[in-house]
């Protein structure tokens, strides 16, 4: 077996790190370990929302809609992603939050992968 290859299922693997599949939080030596980038498989039921705004952001983020309807809240602006493939990118220093207007599946890529940005999940949420 080649230790530099990992084969998995995003739906199953995502539960380990609240949706995050790749980033600094994976063990060094695991092909999913990266200090350069993080990737998330976000499955959000209708009405799901971020518990609190992310502030003091030091990373750049791309959020891509796979299915559903997903709203991203940015300072002074709401962006609604409602067509498969719609995406939004925001840079360092941009606070944000989000809300699933319908059952939604989103792929998030953010960089770099920095420890210390975990927000506590509300009870019953991953």
Based on the model shown, name its key terms.
three-stranded antiparallel β-sheet; disordered C terminus; 126 residues; single chain; mainly beta; five-stranded antiparallel β-sheet; Jelly Rolls; 35% strand
Structural class: mainly beta
The CATH superfamily name of the domain at 36-111 is: Jelly Rolls
Shape: globular
Number of helices, where a helix is a run of at least 4 consecutive DSSP H or I residues = 1
| Largest sheet, spatial ordering of strands | 1-2-8-3-6
Percent strand: 25-35%
Q: What separation lies between the terminal Cα atoms? A: 31 Å
How would you sum up this structure, described in words?
The protein is mainly beta. The longest helix has 4 residues, at 10-13. The protein contains 1 helix and 8 strands. A 5-stranded antiparallel sheet has the order 1-2-8-3-6. The protein has a 3-stranded antiparallel sheet with strand order 5-4-7, with no helix packed on it.
Describe the protein's topology.
Blueprint: H1 10-13, E1 20-22, E2 38-44, E3 60-67, E4 70-74, E5 77-81, E6 87-90, E7 97-100, E8 104-111
Antiparallel strand pairs: 1-2, 2-8, 3-6, 3-8, 4-5, 4-7
């Amino acid at each position: 077996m080649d230790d530099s290859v990992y084969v998995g299922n995003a739906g199953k693997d995502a539960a380990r790190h609240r949706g995050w599949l790749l980033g600094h939080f994976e063990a060094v030596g695991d092909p999913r370990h990266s200090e350069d980038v993080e990737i998330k498989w976000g499955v959000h039921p209708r009405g799901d929302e971020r518990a609190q705004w992310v502030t003091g952001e030091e990373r750049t983020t791309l959020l891509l809609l796979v299915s559903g309807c997903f709203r991203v809240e940015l300072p002074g602006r709401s962006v609604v992603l409602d067509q498969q493939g719609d995406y939004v990118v925001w840079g360092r220093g941009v606070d944000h939050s989000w809300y699933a207007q319908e059952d939604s599946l989103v792929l998030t890529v953010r960089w770099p992968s920095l420890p210390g940005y975990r927000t506590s999940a509300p009870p019953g949420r991953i």
